[in-house]
Amino acid sequence: MLRACAGEKLRAVRARALLAIGFAGAFRRSELVALHVEDIRRDAEGVRVVIRQSKADQEGEGAVVAIPHGDRLRPVAALDAWLAAARVAVGFVFRRIGRAGQVTDEPMSDRAVARLVQAVAKLAGYDPALFGGHSLRAGFITSAARAGASIFKIQEISRHRSLQVLAGYVRDAQVYRDHAGSGFL
After folding, report:
1. Which is more confidently placed, 173 or 160?
2. Is 28 known to be catalytic?
3. Could you confirm whether 36 is annotated as catalytic?
4. Which residue in 16, 29, 159, 160 is the catalytic one?
5. From the candidates 14, 16, 137, 159, which is the catalytic residue?
6. Cα–Cα distances in angstroms (integers) from residue 102 to residues 97, 109, 117, in the given order
7. Backbone angles phi, psi at 28, to 5 degrees
8. What are phi and psi of 33, to 5 degrees?
9. Regarding predicted confidence, which is higher, 95 or 168?
């Protein structure tokens, strides 16, 4: 899907950053649109993103999600490219882009995130009806499970309070791994 966002126009650069960061941090769309530049702390391995409040954290205790630089999707580089192209140094990270192509001070809506994911899925040749704002979060969890990450390491990123809910994603991702019939079917 990142390849489907080709070009250096602001909308393409923002789409790549939003998809890469949203996926790498297993973020909810509400968390992405609430993200501020001030919530991003850089270190040698990548960035640490402070989530001030989320669906699972109504009290606003906050959480920190580490996002490595990465070798394939390169989420931190995509984020940096967006911040530089949009000239965003403070305030909301993922902002609306006006009809004339100017970056506004207003954040994207959470619904705009879902529409962007669906539009890029369509560009990439996928059925957009199968994608939405939750796809970034669910995609990370499923991909991590398929790659063999422990449920506890996945929970560090996804911030699920319930292992039972998280296990539903993991079970689906590993339905064929070590299948009982794989040795004789």
Report:
1. 160
2. yes
3. no
4. 160
5. 137
6. 5, 17, 21
7. -75, 155
8. -75, -20
9. 95
Would you call 41 a catalytic residue per the annotation?
no
Q: Is 48 a catalytic residue?
A: no
Q: CA 64 to CA 67: how far, in whole Å?
A: 10
Q: How far is CA 134 from CA 27, 29, 51, in A?
A: 8, 7, 17
137 catalytically annotated: yes
C-alpha closest to that of 157 among 142, 141, 170: 141
Tokens matching residue 8: 């250096």
Which residue of the set 9, 42, 134, 161 is catalytic?
Answer: 134
Q: Is 55 a catalytic residue?
A: yes
Residues ≥6 apart with Cβ < 8 Å to 128: 118, 119, 121, 122
**How distant is the alpha carbon of residue 105 from its chain centre?**
21
| Prediction pTM value | 0.84
Which superfamily does 10-128 belong to? Intergrase catalytic core (1.10.443.10)
Dihedral sign, Cα of residue 176, residue 177, residue 181, residue 185 = positive
CA dist., res. 163 & res. 65, Å (int): 18
Backbone CA torsion sign across 20, 21, 25, 30? negative
How confident is residue 173, by pLDDT bands cut at 50, 70 and 90? low
What is the CB-side half-sphere exposure of residue 185 using CA atoms within 13 A? 6
* Token pair for 61: 């205790």
Q: How far apart are alpha carbons 21 and 35 in whole angstroms?
A: 11
